[in-house]
Amino acid sequence: MLNTIVCGDNCDVMRTMPSESIDLVVTSPPYDDLRTYGGHDWDFYGVAWNLKRLLKPGGVIVWVVGDKTVDGSESGSGMLQALHFKEIGLRLNDTMIWEKDGFMQPTKGVPRYYQTHEMMYCLSKGKPKFNPIRDIGNKFTDILNRVEENNSAFDGLAGEFKTKEYRKRGNVWRINVGFNKSTKDAIAFEHPATFPEALARDHILTWSDEKDVVLDPFSGSGTTAKMAKHTGRRYIGIEVNPEYCEIAEKRLAQQVLF
Fold first, then answer.
1. CA 152 to CA 167: how far, in whole Å?
2. What percent of the chain has a predicted confidence (pLDDT) above 90?
3. CB-based contacts of 5: which residues, under 8 Å, 6+ apart?
4. What span, in angstroms and rounded, lies between the C-alpha atoms of 188 and 185?
């Protein structure tokens, strides 16, 4: 099953997989009823149970979600899902934000700002491996570098950041969406909600090592699988929609990955 896109119901497929066989899950499930993905239903509780069983000790789930708004109130589904993962024994290792360059209009008549982000819940089975992404400067780094020298609480941290050209980023990631932004792969946009390649890649680099096994149980256009392949990991993608399976296979067959 390694290095393949499996076309089928994710719970049915995961039940056939051995326990503690997955190092990392990077996925973005359908958000409430905001996206139909061909009209297929899915079982959150079954998915959660299977993912916990499949994770190796130290394994991580990156769960990227958004909520719909009903009668002026957000559903909170993503937060409730993250809390359920905690209830079944996983750690909520980090609550991260994906900030987009585009935005969604607020629901008509609802007093709220434009929606420019999605949540990224990082859950782990015990203490995870961690390979932090380092960038050349960022807002967080600039703030630290302006800390007063006589503020002893920050002396060591500020000094560390001042002496490194590449600095560890914060947990708000600004990653663009759309063609020539999230990917230059035109095939990917045959899917209605293409996952940004940089988002999948940076989580894969952060929470796994080369030759680790990366799973996406909502594979869609195959972005997680493609980035796992590109970064030297092994992958398994599961997708219930045959049309999306075909898109993912086309992308993975390309020799030039970017």
1. 21
2. 57
3. 219, 222, 225, 237, 238, 239, 245, 248, 249, 252
4. 6
Collapsed DSSP state (helix, strand, coil) of residue 39: helix
Predicted pLDDT at 167: 77
Q: Determine the residue type at 242.
A: P
Q: What is the 3-state secondary structure (H, E, C) of 153-193?
A: CCHHHHHHHHCCCEEECCCEEECCCCECCCECCHHHHHCCC
- Write out pLDDT tens, residues 114-169: 888 899 999 999 999 999 998 876 555 455 454 444 444 444 544 544 445 667 88
Amino acid at 187: I
Let me know how long the chain is: 258
Q: What are the structure tokens assigned to 31, written together?
A: 């958000």
DSSP letter at 32 equals: T
pLDDT tens track for 88-110: 999 999 999 999 877 666 666 77
Classified as helix, coil or strand, 224 is helix
Instruction: Tell me the C-alpha distance between 84 and 63, whole Å.
Output: 12
Element (H, E) at 235: strand 234-239
Per-residue confidence (pLDDT) for residue 178, from 0 to 100? 59
Give the relative orientation of helices 223-230 and 242-253 as an angle to the nearest 10 degrees. Answer: 20
CA dist., res. 149 & res. 198, Å (int): 36
* pLDDT at 32 exceeding the cut of 90: no
